Amino acid sequence: MPEKNKDLNCKANNYAAKISIIYAVVSAVWILVSDILTTTLFAKRGLFTIFSVIKGWLFVLITASLLYFLIRKKIYSLYLSENKLQNALEELQKTNDELSKTQEKLVVQYKKLAKNQEKIKELAFFDQLTNLPNRNHFMLVLEKAIKEAHFKGQQLALIYIDIDNFSKINNTLGHETGDVVLKEIAQRLKEAVGNNGFVARITGDEFGIIIYNFLDFNVLNYFIYKIFNSFSMSCEIMEYNFYITPSMGIAIYPSDGQDSITLLKNADKALKLAKEKGKNTFCFYNVEMDNILQQRLEFESDLRKAIEKDQFVLYYQPIVNLEKMQLCGAEALIRWIHPQKGMIPPMSFIPIAEQTGLISQIGQWVLTKAILDLKSIREVTNHNFYVSFNASLREFSSANFVDNVLYTIESLNADPSSLGIEITESVAMADPQNTIKSINNFKEKGIKVFLDDFGTGYSSLNYLKQLPIDVVKIDRSFIANMSTDIKEQRIAKSLIDLSHILDLKVVAEGIEDSQQAEILKSFDCDFGQGYLFGKPLPKDQFIELAKRF
User: Fold this and answer.
1) pLDDT at 69 (0 to 100)
2) pTM for the complete prediction?
C-alpha cells in the first residue's frame, strides 16, 4: 500500500477509536452515576422501574446526541473537503481546457514559425526571381565542396558567368522582359550542368557554377562548351526574338585558390579579361592576370589623375576642300601627355575611359577646349571654318548628352554652325531611332553631324538613308592602296557616288600623297583629310599651318 494510503487509513482508525472511547467513557459514567442516583433516590420498586425506563431513554438520547455532534462535525468536514476537492477539480478541468487551447495555439504558432523559418531560409539562401541558390548559398556550398575535394584529393572548377550587354535588354525592352530572360538563362544553365555541378545566381546578370571532381580538362571543356551551346538558341520573349551571349571566367581548385574567397576572386579576374577580349568567350585564370589587372588599375588611376590635373592636350588635323584646296575645318583629336610615360594615343585610353565611365568627363573637356580654341583659330581662317569632335557610344547613348552639348555651346557663347559631331556607324546603329532623334536636335541648332569610318560598319542602306547626317567620312582603309589598286578605286568611287545620291558631303580620310588626292578629286570627293595636308597638331602649331593655306 502506498505511504499516502497508509496515512489516511491511520487517521481513519484514530478518529473511529476516538468516537468509540468517548462513547464508552460517557456510557460508563452514565451507568454508574444513574445507577447510584436511582438506588439512592428511588427506594420504591415502581418508581425505580419508571426511572430506569426514563434513564434508558435519556441514555439513548444523550448518546445519540453525542454521536450526532461527533459524526456531524466530521461529516461536515468531509463535505467541506469534498466541496473544495470538487472546486479544485473544476479549476483543474478549466485549467486543463485552457492548457489544451493554449497547446492548440502553440501548435498553430509552431507551424507558422516552421513555415516562417522555411521562408527565411528561402530568402537567405535562394534567389526569388530564378529560384536558384543565391550568393550566400553558393559560398556555403563552395566551401563545403572545397573541403570535400581537399579530403579526397580532387579538383573542382568555379565558372563565373556574366551576360553580355544585358543592360541593353532592361533599357530597351524593360525590366520585366529582363526578368523573363534571366529565368530562361537560369533554366538553361541548370539543364546544361545537370547533376554534375551546382548553379547559382550571384547577383544581377551574374551566375556561378561549380563543376565537381572533373577528371581532366577534356571533361571540363565539355561542360564549358555545353554551357556556351545553351546560349546558342535565341530567346523568344513576347514578340521579341534575340540572342544572348555569355562571358566566363574559370578558376580551378586547388591550383588557382585554396579557399572560396580566393577562388571566386580569381574567377572574377578571368571574367574581366574575357570581357576585355571582346565578350562571348571564356578565360582561365593564371598568375599573369594579376599583373595585367594591376597594370589596368594603375592605368585607371592615372587616367583619373589626368582629368584632375589637366594632362590632356587637344590636337587638330586639317580638313581641306579638294576642289579649291582651301582649309575648311579640322578634326579635334585628344592626346594624353603622361608625366612619366609621355604621349599616350587615344586608342590606348579611350576604351578604358568608356568602360569606367570617365569618357563623359573627357568628352566634356574636349568640347569645352575645342570651343575655346576655335575663337583663336578662326582669326586666321575664313568664317566658315569648323571643328568636329568625336562622340563615343557611351556618350551618345546617354540620356543627357544632347542637353549637355547644347548647354556648353550656349554657356560659352559659341556658334553652333562652327561645330561638328562625329559618330561611327556602330554608334549610329546601336539605337537607330534614338540616333535620329539626337541628330535632329543637333541639326536644329545648326551643328553638323559626321558619319565616321563609313564603309567599315554594318549599317544598311535603309537605315543610312534615314539618318539626317550631313557628311560621311570614308575610312582610310579604302584610300591606302588606291594609287595602285583599281578595285579600291572603284570601291571608293562607289562610296562617294552613293553618298552624293543620298545628298551627303564626303570626306576622304588617310590621304598621304598627291596622287590619291587627284584621284579622289576626279571622283568629285568634296573634302580630304590626311598627312598630305597636315598631321594632327596642337593649337598654336595648327594656327601657323592655317596661315600657310
Assistant:
1) 75
2) 0.60
